Structure formats: C-alpha cells, structure tokens
Amino acid sequence: MPATLIGAHMPTGKGLPDAVRRGKTIGCTAIQIFTSSPQQWKSKPLAPDASEKLAEAIQETGIDPQAMVSHDSYLINLCAPDPEKQAMSREALTRELTRCAELKIPYVVSHMGAHLGQGEDIGLEMVAEQTIGLLQEIPDGVTLLMETTAGQGSSLNYKFEHLAKLLELTKSPKNLAICLDTCHIFAAGYDIRTKETYEATFAEFDRLIGCEVIKVIHCNDSKKALGTKVDRHNHLGEGEIGETAFRCLVHDARFEKTPIVVETPEADTMHEVNVQRLWNWAGEAKP
Fold first, then answer.
1. How far is CA 86 from CA 10, 78, 93, 126, in A?
2. pLDDT tens digits for range 110-143
C-alpha cells in the first residue's frame, strides 16, 4: 500500500490549531510544527486551554493524532563543550518533550548535537549520557526522534553508524527513535536517486538499525550534490535527488503509516505543491 500520512511543516504564527487547519486545506494528513520559537532558549508557558484547542482542531480536521510532530529548537546541543550550554540544551529539550506530552503530540524531532571539535566519539557519548537522563524525566506518551543530519560543520548523526551507536549506548529505550531526512542523508553521501540505490541505502539502514525505528520522515529534495555535507532543501523533484527517490518512498510498504513531512522552501506557496506531488506519486504505479 502507498503512503497514507503525507504532510508538511506548517507555520504557527496564528497558533497551533490554525496550523493544523491550514495543513488540512493543502492536503496534509500529517502535520509538523514548532511549539515555540526555534531560535530562542526561552519558551512561553502553554495557555491553560492550549491542549484542548489543539485537540479540537485535530478532531475537526480528521488528522491522525499519531501523525502530529514537533521539531525542537535549533539551539539545542546535548554535547556542547560549554557545560552551561549543555545544561541549557538538556533543559530546553526536556521542556519541549514535556510540553508535547501535555499537547498530546507524540513525536519531537531533534538534531541532538554537534561535537564542536571534541571528536565524534566523545560527542556521541555525551549525547547518550544526556539523553538517558532526560528521557527518564519526561512524561509517557512522547517519543524523542534523533534526526539524521547532513554532516554540516561538526554535526553528529550523518552516519547511520552514529544512530546505531546512540541506540546501543542508551539501550534503545521505548521513547527514543529516529527521524530520517532525505535531503540530509543524500548530502551526507547516501545515494537514493535510483530504485537500486534507494533500496541499497535502506537495506544498509535496516542492517545497522532496523527501518522499524524510523517513526517520521522529512521529505526534501537537495540543492547540493551527493556527499557535499551541505544542508539545503529544494522542492521535490527539482533538486539533485530527483523524482524517483520520492516515488520509491511513497510506495515503500514499510512507511505506509509513517508521517512523511515536507520541509521545502517557500512554505506559503509551495508546501501545497510539494504535498500534492507526493499524493500524485503515491497514486501512480510503483517505480
């Protein structure tokens, strides 16, 4: 069966319920949002009726509550060499996970960390230590998703082996899983441009980790070439990845019930276009 949960990261300038309703109007059956500014450490407390109003919008639109996703702050770095920044990161991520548990948003996506010169092994160990602690502090009902990265700068998790190591170090708690970003893995060097390379890349992921650990997919084409380690999203089918990978993705039976979320540029005008492309490809024959 083709994908059933296709959507986009929706702007929240007019509130979370509005983001859900506008997502529905452009064809989304999955929604990703920021619950607070991704460029600030502080976040405003939720209004007393925030959870109720979001639930009303989800019920009104028919969005699957399990297809709601939040993305954490871009400032978070669980392996920051500065202890103060590391503590602030853990506090901010814990706060986001707790807020999403209150809002009944089941998934929070995080870039997790950049080692900033300490080395990948030290960075991974620090991220694992912080993750173990914070996941013990959050309420039930929310899962932290470690996002694959492009490897830009000193970002971790651009190799599948990094994610496998973090799951090993944390002993794979039930509230820790993975968000795979198509642009990021391509920029990191994983080719998915043809049916054969798509299948080979996901076979490698399955061998090292298991595709069942992928709970959300960020669906983005890439402005930069394979292996450049530069994170620049493009509209689907218009970048270096091309259409075939996305056709394969929406026909991959493993991801039939996995939220597939567009994060392409020009959200106000192009999210609807990119979401519709995915639905169109899902409705066509397998590549």
1. 29, 5, 11, 9
2. 999 999 999 999 999 999 999 999 999 999 999 9
